[in-house]
Amino acid sequence: MFTDSSLWFSSYDTPVAITTTADSSLIDVTGAGSGNAPAMKGGVNSTTGAALVIGVDYGAGDGKAQLSLNLTVGTTFTAAGAATLTVTLLAAPDNGSNAPGSYTTLLSTAAIPVASLVAGAVFNFPIPPIQLATGEALPRFYKLTYTVATGPMTAGKISAGLQLNQPNIVEGSQVPGNFVSY
Q1: 109, 127, 132, 158: which is closest to 59 by C-alpha?
Q2: Which of 19, 79, 88, 119 could disulfide-link 83, Cβ–Cβ 3.0 to 4.6 Å?
Q3: HSE of 108 in the Cβ direction (CA atoms, 13 Å)?
Q4: Contacts of 37 (CB under 8 A, 6+ apart)
Q5: Is the residue at 40 inside a domain?
Q6: Is residue 144 part of a domain?
Q7: What b/e sequence results for 94-105 when a residue is b if at least 16 CB atoms lie within 10 Å of its CB, and e otherwise?
């Protein structure tokens, strides 16, 4: 499993508390941040003279590995009733002013019941490739929307980010008990 601090919406060190429906922070593939022009040399299309638009399809992977959305519960969620949490990954191209344009939904989880949102729980969701129409720009900005139903949640924190090569416990990525290494 590979992580990159620039691909985290909320890190393990700073998990986000979710009590009602909310949006996450943005991931800008250029690292500049919304409202800021990316620092690049020769950032102009040599044919048209227009500014280059930068974007990445994280769902396309590299042919061998694919990024996944990783959600890790840091603090157990509680709610007065039978609340659920749905997480949606959204992507938007640059609107021409270094800010997000219209968002497209890349994936949305099923409603996760509060009883499953216990400290240490990990959820991984493969990111599908983007189906772009001809001439459409690749996304520069990614964000999550957390939707709480029959809430609010009264407690709970989650870390969320994009990771490469998720661990597969079924295939034995964990060390079994009573294992000795020399």
Answers
A1: 127
A2: 79
A3: 8
A4: 43, 98
A5: no
A6: yes
A7: beeebbbbebee
Cβ-Cβ contacts under 8 Å for 170 (sequence gap 6 or more) = none
In this structure, which amino acid lies at residue 96? Answer: G
Domain that holds residue 65: 5-31+54-165
Consecutive H or E run containing 108 = strand 104-108
pLDDT given at position 141: 93
- To 5 degrees, how large is the angle CA 64–CA 87–CA 30? 55
Stretch 126-131: mean pLDDT: 84
**Among 165, 144, 168, which Cα is nearest to 61's?**
165
Compute the residue count for the chain: 182
* Alpha carbons 115 and 89: distance in angstroms, whole number: 22
Question: Is residue 96 included in any domain, yes or no?
Answer: yes
Q: Which helix (H) or strand (E) holds 179?
A: none
From CA 115, how far away is CA 119, in angstroms rounded?
Answer: 11
The tens digit of pLDDT for each residue in 92-124 reads 999 888 899 999 999 999 999 999 999 999 999
**pTM over cut 0.90:** no
